[in-house]
Amino acid sequence: MSKTASVALAPSASLFARFMAALDRLLMASAEISNHNGDLPRFGL
Question: What are phi and psi of 13, to 5 degrees?
Fold first, then answer.
């Protein structure tokens, strides 16, 4: 029996998917801050 293990790695996300994830995090942070201040979020999806 082999003493090494192999791990299958998922393919790296495309540049567009990484950009959309970053934009989503930014919008969610903005909405949470607005909600904390009692305002309506300025941006949303």
Answer: -70, 150
